[in-house]
Design brief:
Layout (H helix, E strand, L loop, with lengths): L1 H8 L3 H19 L4 H7 L5 H12 L21
Length: 80
């Protein structure tokens, strides 16, 4: 299976899963009022510090920088 991932997605299954987790964390951080701890758990990370490290490495910003201070989301993101 790893060879199929490498051939078609140009990355390992682990890397693909991490990309999915980080993408979800970005959406949750940007579109909801969830606390960082909640974003971390909802996107499959075991802690907010692990999410923060991976997020900053990938996007060169911290998850808390996604939303300006005091901004409240008017439409929460619903994930089915």
């Amino acid at each position: 299976m790893e060879q199929l991932f490498l051939r078609y997605l140009k990355c390992s299954p682990r890397r693909h899963y991490l990309d999915l987790q980080l993408g979800l964390a970005w959406q949750l951080g940007e579109r909801t009022d969830m606390l960082l701890f909640g974003v971390a758990l909802a996107s499959g990370f075991s802690s907010h510090s692990l999410l923060s490290r991976k997020f900053e490495r990938q996007f060169s910003i911290s998850p808390s920088e996604l939303r300006p201070t005091g901004r409240r989301s008017s439409t929460p993101l619903h994930i089915a």
